[in-house]
Write a structure and sequence with these properties.
By secondary structure, the protein is an all-alpha fold. The protein has one domain. The protein starts with about 20 loop residues before the first helix and ends in a 10-residue tail after the last helix. It is globular and about 35 Å long.
């Protein structure tokens, strides 16, 4: 799948288990230039980031 400049994808990461993310979601994440993930104010880490981290090869920033 080729992402064109300006394409925006909203991807659900499933019920919280890294093994349950869809193949299509992984393909889009791996081809994306930027990946934004949510983080709750009450937690130090982001569950969504933990799920997708292995599919993102780019440098992370806060």
């Amino acid at each position: 799948m080729k992402c064109e400049p300006g394409d925006f994808y909203g991807i659900g990461v499933g019920p919280g288990d890294r093994e349950l993310i869809t193949v299509k979601a992984v393909r889009i994440i791996e081809s994306a230039d930027c990946v934004f993930v949510p983080k709750a104010d009450i937690k130090e880490s982001s569950l969504a980031l933990e799920i997708v981290r292995g599919y993102c090869e780019r440098k992370e920033s806060n």
